[in-house]
Amino acid sequence: MRPLRGVTVVALEQAIAAPYATRQLADLGARVIKVERPGAGDFARQYDSRVNGLSSHFVWVNRSKESLTLDIKDPRGMAVLRQLLGTADVFIQNLAPGAAARMGLGAEELQAGNPGLVVCDISGYGRGGPYESMKAYDLMVQSEAGLLSVTGSGDDMAKVGISVSDISAGMYAYSSILAALLERANTGKGAHIDVSMLESTVEWMGFPLYYTYDGAEPPPRAGAAHATIYPYGPFTAGDGKVIMMSIQNEREWRAFCDRFLGQPELAEHPDYAGNANRNANREVLGRIIAARFADLTGDEATALLTSVPVACARVNTLADVWEHPQLAARGRWHEVQTPRGPVPALAPPGPVNPEPRMDPVPDVGEHTRKILAELGRGESDVDDLIRDGVV
Questions:
Q1: pLDDT above 70 covers what percent of the chain?
Q2: Could you tell me the CATH superfamily of domain 232-315?
């Protein structure tokens, strides 16, 4: 069973945020019709060519979708889109701010003809306010949300290595759409969802924001370590391997001092009693811990920490993740087809179905003829649209 079987999503989407949301819906069984520009399609298709000549970004967020190419600036292309939206369940878009509304694709206009339609708009900053019309990409929003003030080391900021603002907006769009569909089952009415990348990212900034509450000093940039919990970060073993470890409470601290450091008396030392004191004295404490790690190989340190038990982890490369034993043991890698052949893909986390939906990544316009035929367009009509560059 796929819980969204029978739900049709029309997506006027590009880049990551909206495509990430709709891929989650597709994973649950929704039919996702991705509307792309004729020719080049979604510009994310051109980000790189690392996956057998395809874009890594595009392959990641676009499996299990159908691609329909439409020039919606042409009245004939817009007519096709409106016909689709007349019977769709969900419309999601992340065009430039205000672009959809200027084309008559605002929620009020669309729901006049389809009252049950769930409309989801994703933008950098949301409707209203001084930033409403500003273009936004992931790094711009990371900056505005204060995320770069807590990442990096010392005075050197660092962007998060994944599109975290896009992903957060996509996930809030996804969960809001699911909630709207549940509500529609009770009321028969659609909804208008306005997702802001800024708000989605600021929600995830809750800890550092509250840490600076009422004018308090912000947490310092701490590189790969935690800024305010200690010890919580990387330590280098004698063979050069880097191990991540974390102490979260006093029970773990006492066991760590006794069984890993071999210095049970440290657990009672007033300088290290409670996390606040350990964090304040992290420089001295760090030297003590580092000396113990230096006596062990990475494998020995990991085994000993695990036996304490204290949470620890290897610092994996991306190549290591492809071969991760836990993912392999749980059968998480499946195969999806692409226009350039099969590639591995991670099955959806938290599966509701033992056989997850892992349908192909579409080529540009791959399903155009099929979808137009479903809308009642004859072959000659479709040929004319193709000839004129409308599809």
A1: 99
A2: formyl-coa transferase, domain 3 (3.30.1540.10)
- State which CATH number among 3.40.50.10540, 3.10.310.10, 3.40.50.150, 3.30.200.20 fits the domain covering 8-205+328-387: 3.40.50.10540
Q: Which of 170, 136, 179 is nearest to 19 (CA)?
A: 170
Give the residues of the chain that fall short of pLDDT 70: 1
Taking the C-alpha atoms of residue 77 and residue 84, their distance in angstroms, rounded to an integer, is: 11
Catalytic residue among 48, 155, 166, 363: 166
Q: How many CB atoms lie within 10 A of CB 269?
A: 14
Quote the CA–CA distance of 78 and 102 in Å, as a whole number. 13
Helix (H) or strand (E) holding 120: strand 118-123
What does the DSSP 8-state code read for residue 137?
-
* Strand runs labelled E in 268-384: 311-314, 333-336, 343-346
Q: Report the interhelical angle of 164-187 vs 197-204 (nearest 10°).
A: 110
- Cβ atoms of 16 and 166 within 8 Å: the answer is yes
Predicted pLDDT of residue 351: 72
Contact indicator for 66, 32 with CB cutoff of 8 Å: yes
**pLDDT at position 285, please?**
98
pTM of the full structure: 0.95
Residue 184: partners with Cβ closer than 8 Å, 6 or more residues away:
116, 118, 190, 191
Neighbours of 276 (CB within 10 A): 11
166 is catalytic: yes
